[in-house]
Specification:
This protein is an alpha+beta fold. The strands form 4 sheets. Strands 2, 3, 6, 7, 11, 12 and 13 form a 7-stranded antiparallel sheet that branches. Strands 1, 4, 9, 10 and 14 form a 5-stranded antiparallel sheet that branches. Strands 16-15-17-18-19 form a 5-stranded parallel sheet, with helices on both faces. The protein contains 8 helices and 19 strands. The chain has 2 domains: about 160 residues; about 210 residues, 3-Layer(aba) Sandwich (Rossmann fold).
């Protein structure tokens, strides 16, 4: 590695078990991650975290995206793995590509393409995560290097891709956003990049000073204490926080789904004390790794229609107690007060109507941007 440089994540997606994927057979996937910081050297990470057999990658490329499934002519670079153009990723494992010389500007759209030469059936246990962005699947064939890839299907999922890293100055910082659907940007406009980590990345790029990569490891439905749609926050902490390249800061917004008890299981009903204990464990683990942790308050959901009976006065009491602890206990290195940014001053159990997407749980596009604006950039000095 060159002197004065280190690998820093510029984009990430938390691996999870795929939902509603029929499988693949001799097809090419083209995904369009929107990076935060730029660089002159790059690598990608492909995950088979939930696969039950090796994932075969026949060929892989990276390029600057043009429009739709097209890449900017002349920008494509072949990716290799240990010097080979193909690789087999063991079940449960992740593969880092070799570094490639590639000039990527900040806030750019990439096209990461890889050919799956064999049969990858749905019962393979495909690793993916919904994207709120349009990605592409080809008809049969290897189109990884094609300037204009033919399209067989569209997909709103990050299929297998879990990270993009750039070689950055040694003083560069990187922040992981660990959360649920409110961090993942559920219900936000597809392809509009309205998630609060997107807004944070834009603000950090616009600010003069050292570079700060932003990695969104939000996962819809995620809870601190119990698994759902993948691993719980505590279970995935090592992989999705501590193992992220160059991570120096963590913003954690988890606990809402613990309170909502989506599956209404009596044994999974939690109190403020349970959630606080889980968050305190995350703080201990982050500090043990030299990572500064920022606690995000939980936004109100008193008029939620996304799921019936998710809110009740007892759960609201616990939410208020959790937020008071986040603000006042001094466990965190900083606070992102998303509750204060979005709550209706007249009805504090609900979001302001303008900041609500309409389901009482997820913010509107403008509400997500307000969350990104509520984070004090001095925390990344």
């Amino acid at each position: 590695m060159p002197s004065g440089k280190r690998w820093v994540g510029t984009w990430a997606a938390a691996p999870a078990p795929a939902e509603g994927i029929a499988g693949f057979n001799n097809q090419t996937i083209r995904l369009n991650p929107h990076v935060s910081i730029g660089g002159e050297r790059l690598r990608v990470r492909i995950s088979n975290a939930y696969g039950n057999r090796p994932l075969i990658i026949g060929a892989a490329t990276v390029a600057l995206r043009d429009k739709g499934p097209a890449i900017v002519a002349g920008t494509g670079r072949k990716l290799s793995f240990g010097g080979r153009g193909s690789t087999a990723i063991a079940a449960g494992a992740v593969a880092y590509s070799d570094a490639v010389d590639f000039s990527v500007p900040p806030l750019a759209d990439l096209a990461v393409s890889f050919h799956l030469p064999g049969d990858v059936p749905a019962n393979f246990a495909i690793t993916a995560r919904y994207a709120r962005q349009t990605n592409y699947v080809s008809p049969p064939g290897d189109y990884a290097a094609a300037t204009m890839m033919p399209v067989g299907n569209l997909t709103d999922q990050w299929l297998f891709l879990c990270g993009v890293d750039v070689l950055a100055p040694s003083d560069a910082l990187a922040v992981v956003a660990l959360g649920d659907s409110l961090t993942d940007g559920n219900i936000s406009t597809i392809d509009a990049l309205c998630r609060w980590p997107d807004q944070l990345a834009r603000r950090l790029v616009a600010r003069a000073g050292r570079r700060v990569g932003v990695m969104n490891n939000g996962l819809g439905g995620n809870r601190i204490l119990h698994d759902i749609r993948g691993d719980s926050g505590l279970r995935r902490f090592d992989r999705d926080v501590l193992a992220q390249p160059g991570v120096t800061h963590l913003i954690v917004m988890l606990g809402t789904n613990d309170l909502r008890n989506r599956w209404a299981k009596p044994e999974e009903e939690v109190t403020a004390e349970h959630v606080i204990a889980g968050l305190a464990q995350m703080a201990l683990r982050a500090h043990g790794a030299g990572i500064k942790i920022i606690g995000a308050t939980l936004t109100p959901f008193g008029n939620e229609t996304y799921m019936a009976n998710a809110w009740n006065p007892t759960r609201e009491m616990h939410r208020v107690a959790i937020n008071a602890w986040i603000r006042e206990a001094g466990v965190f290195d900083g606070v992102a007060d998303f509750d204060a940014a979005l709550r209706d001053p007249e009805i504090p159990t609900q979001m302001r109507a303008a900041d609500d997407c309409g389901d009482g749980l997820h913010p509107s596009d403008g509400g997500y941007r307000k969350m990104g604006d509520a984070i004090d950039l001095a925390l990344f000095a």
